[in-house]
């Protein structure tokens, strides 16, 4: 492709790409010239410059899209064009068929912009259409990382490289993880493939590592570079030389392919997030200081200020640069005068810049009485592009920047005295509301969030609202609350850590085993992971049939066991069918809430009964041994969910738990309900795991042995229900999830026993029990997408699900089963239920009236049967 810049060395605005509702975190340019943006709004957009920047919107992630990369075709996917990664830990691989070009445009040449002399003139303003056409589904999803996928790259031979907050790097070929590289001590922020076959990685541990290729899939570290003084955020390949890096320390370094530092570029005033090579010209970098900086011969030759921090940038084959900004907009910058934005569009952009607020600590100390008046200070031209001046305009301090290309000063915002703001207590306005304090919060994912706080508020309540609004994990609650407390000068004060509307373990006065705060029986499960509100991820067809084997080192099972199953049913199932928002399911459903006060009352009542009977006194809690106090302490710890990361349980408290597990069948449900919540505690999960491993042959301190005995033998409905809910909650943390599934999938008789007991109890069952069983089965289907399940287990699973569907009548409960069964059938494409099961399920669901929002998922299951 010919780069068209008319020998112009100055970049100017060409286009603003509006459409995302949150930060544009990542950008790339495809080989055909189309632009791709990934956003914190969970979506990806593909923009076509040859068609007035019309866009197609892609949905494959359930969380932030943090990275996108252009891909060459592969043997498996001949039309492979794009990969994306996000905070949902998933990598989506997309083919061109997911975002086809408008056939009416009939312009498929790669020089789509070269002859487009007025690509902006068809639009009266510089804002591309906010409404994008809906695209297709990803062709492949790569599962294996245990935390957010923060970066993607490509090796010189076309393999996908991924880096994650889990501190690992993975190399993928045709849906299979070839190798996992470990060595960094913190999150991976960038990965690239060099021309010589080596891989380079950058990390929050402030280092860069060069990995030498020693045969296909084999890499070893040959050099660790430690020149940067802070997190290394970005890398870029420099053909025929080596690579560039950028860092939170504000610098850009240029390296040879062997890791020799040859140049240091300084000019950014804050974090530098990304850097690219501009062929035959120089480099470009972007960062938190809101600028795109162009570098040539070691000098910062141009500075282009944005309305907000700039997360990423990419170079187009036509010579343009695309930036992704925290204001939710992508910007296209060009050196080709035929693609310059109109003067009206430029003025609109500059007006947006001028409306921004800049804290004084970003421009240096200011004293209003020493500032020059705007009418005098800006008479003289600037000495270089990007030069900054703070001037006085009446009672307002303004920041102006010299634009060499425009030959004028451009206002980039009004300056607010940061020191005064921190001294004065009513000084911040955020989203139209005035706060005592406005803080910048970095929770470790590289995003700088703003949070408003009034001194009359509970920091934990503010923190809870903040993490919900920004789709952050619950584990950040205490971190954010403590940050607010410390920075608002309230270190000596005590706050109740009750951020939710009700404490997770506090409910109504009447105790119902396994109940939640919400007394609506139609919603007896945890809302944060409600199966019917959380979007699902799709594990599409892969010809090598091992797209589920990339987690927990299960690649040794690449020959899907289910390929040999039900071959007589392997006839003409259409696997071009599209997933729905509910099938397949991607998120484990948990039972997180309980009623601790009433539970305590009931437990003490039962304990009194046991202690008053000579035959059972030995298993009651001994007040002299402080066992009752130890039990109360367990409940108190479980109430403090914001302290889960630092709280723990004593050995004596675990002894109390196992003592109570020996209570009679009509009373043991109280401690089962406690364990249901307790396995959600990360520390308790690890301790229970250790106890299982140490007591494999004994039931005394082996929680799994006790629970499996209940689900296989007990006909006490409360105990069955709670044991199944505990199993569902065990899916949250890896230690117990692994032990549970190992035991469950090694013995098909377990599921058979659960099915048999359900048949006995179902005539008199309540919805809580049926919901517990269907949720447990649903979580198995979610797990099956990450790990291989053998044919016999799949058979037993399908039999259980079909039995529940044919037995129950509640639409919501049946819908849960439809989602689980549909997920299994979509994941294991070569498996098909027997004719009798398919007929039974179809007949059962045809008799149920579902909400309209479930229709597409019901129809999908019918197609899969």
From TrEMBL:
Pfam families given in the database record? PFU, PUL, WD40
Q: Where is the composition biased (Low complexity)?
A: 105-127, 515-531, 544-572
Question: Residue limits of the PFU domain?
Answer: 401-498
List compositional bias (Polar residues) regions by residue number.
494-509
An example GO BP is: proteasome-mediated ubiquitin-dependent protein catabolic process
Q: Mind listing the GO molecular function terms for this protein? A: ubiquitin binding
Where do the record's region annotations for Disordered lie?
101-140, 494-578
**Superkingdom of the source species:** Eukaryota
**SUPFAM superfamilies per the record?**
WD40 repeat-like
Q: Where in the cell is it found?
A: Cytoplasm
- Record-linked SMART domains: WD40
Keywords of this entry: Cytoplasm, Repeat, WD repeat
Q: Where are the WD repeats?
A: 17-48, 142-173, 181-212, 225-258, 265-295
Every copy of the PUL domain together lies at: 581-864
Give Gene Ontology CC terms. cytoplasm; nucleus
In its UniProt entry, what is this protein called?
Answer: Phospholipase A-2-activating protein
- State the organism named in the record: Dictyostelium discoideum (Social amoeba)
The opening ranks of the lineage are: Eukaryota, Amoebozoa, Evosea, Eumycetozoa, Dictyostelia
